[in-house]
Amino acid sequence: MNIASDRARLPRQIPYIIGNEGCERFSFYGMRNILTPFLITSLLLYLPESERPGAAKDVFHSFVIGVYFFPLLGGWLADRFFGKYSTVLWMSLVYCLGHACLAIFEHHRTGFFIGLGLIALGAGGIKPLVASFVGDQFDQSNKHLAKVVFDAFYWIINFGSFFASLLMPIFLRQFGAAVAFGIPGALMFVATVVFWSGRKQYVMLPPAPPDPHAFSRVIRTALLAQAPGQARPGLWVAVAGVAAAGAAFALLPQLGFVVVACLALVALIGGVGGGAWLQMERARGTHPDAAVDGARNVLRVLVIFALTTPFFSLFDQKASTWVLQGNEMTMPAWFQSAQMQALNPLLVMLLIPFNNLVLYPLLRRRGWEPTALRRMTAGIAFSGLAWIVVGGLQLLLDGGTPLSIFWQVLPYALLTLGEVLVSATGLEFAYSQAPASMKGVVMSFWNLTTTVGNLWVLLANAAVRNEAVTGAIAGTGLGLVAFQMFFFAAFALLAALAFGLYARRYREVDNYRA
């Protein structure tokens, strides 16, 4: 028995980080969950009524793409220059400014969209760092407590989200957009103060010094190194990825900057990463074996991340597609479709302790270990099942059958179970698999999975504006919305199959600090 491990206690600075996260998540979900209804009923009134739902979905998912793209910037700044604490603090102030813009410019499109951009920068900039900062507070003596804290971290996220989802639609209807967007801004300021208050107790790991064997240098060596008598297929794969990224901008007039930039990023990461994988052994000798093995492991983690992107394409549409479906359903006069989103965090707060205290121990007693990758495989599959159910509801609505909005409880329950198995698990998995010098950036790539997931949504929305595509869908006998729902369900189930097959060959590592 490890007595030191048994006596290890929770670091006393953790409550500051958890408190900060609860307030920040209230602020984020408070504005996020009323964004689609506000756009349709206020900011997009200049559009024909039939075009407003599609335009609102495009704005919403473009915003989410930004939120989960800027973690790349935040992770890079923290890892190379300022450290996690300072980056989180300054990005939080940008975040507060964005909320102020939403409250002030409720009737001014340019000012409102600037506010969304600042929130995307601030929220995205801190997103990979707060979770990673939690991990920094642990070492080998108490790392067994980290899983409990990561679960608590995810629990408090949903505690804030629950009250925000329940209350902000009411404030929007009763008091207007200035108050409904102003309250989340005030909570974000409180979050910043709480985080600052713990500054004297945090473990603050300094930014990594310039490393001649850093991940990027190993990748570059692997791509450019020549082996006598051998071709360089990896380099050509990387060149093809760069070319594809450049060619994506030819689609700018049809798809818009956000979609094109995301497509270019996917092509660049896929080309350079895939090319380096083919030639990774050529970096040995120039770089130590540990650096080469670490770089290879990061690329393997990125494949895991890529296979989770279909889950996020389904999950984030509960705040757009599912809200719009709810508007077609019957509901009490005091209720709004956006408030159904409160069910998601409420179920998360129930499922996390249920899984840890009941489900996982039961599975272990039956001889089946619920590893991180097994849980994530099941989670992606559950999201696909949720969309089969919500697609069935849409078929009934399209057929003229009146349905209560409370029929959405079942798909919300399935989707939330998937979220707990994928998102809560993925936070700890991403941290544990990241080499010490790459924790911020690897956590940023974990957040980038949501960007790519929302890219699939925007591409699907763009596709159904094509007459040939809509004609083909009409030939199936399904309505446009129902077809998209079943399409995304199949997308997730295929991804779960691919994820499970890849996970069987994946070897997990332990990168907690000594």
TrEMBL record:
Membrane topology: Multi-pass membrane protein
Gene3D superfamilies: MFS general substrate transporter like domains
The keyword Repeat is annotated on this UniProt entry: no
Keyword field: Membrane, Peptide transport, Protein transport, Transmembrane, Transmembrane helix, Transport
Sequence intervals crossing the membrane: 59-78, 85-105, 111-131, 152-172, 178-196, 258-278, 298-315, 342-363, 375-397, 409-431, 443-464, 476-503
Subcellular location: Membrane
Membrane is among the record's keywords: yes
SUPFAM superfamilies the UniProt entry points to: MFS general substrate transporter
Main location: membrane
Pfam families, per the entry: PTR2
PANTHER family: OLIGOPEPTIDE TRANSPORTER-RELATED (PTHR11654)
Similarity field: Belongs to the major facilitator superfamily. Proton-dependent oligopeptide transporter (POT/PTR) (TC 2.A.17) family.
NCBIfam families: yjdL_sub1_fam (TIGR00924)
Protein name listed in UniProt: Oligopeptide:H+ symporter
Organism the protein comes from: Rhodanobacter humi
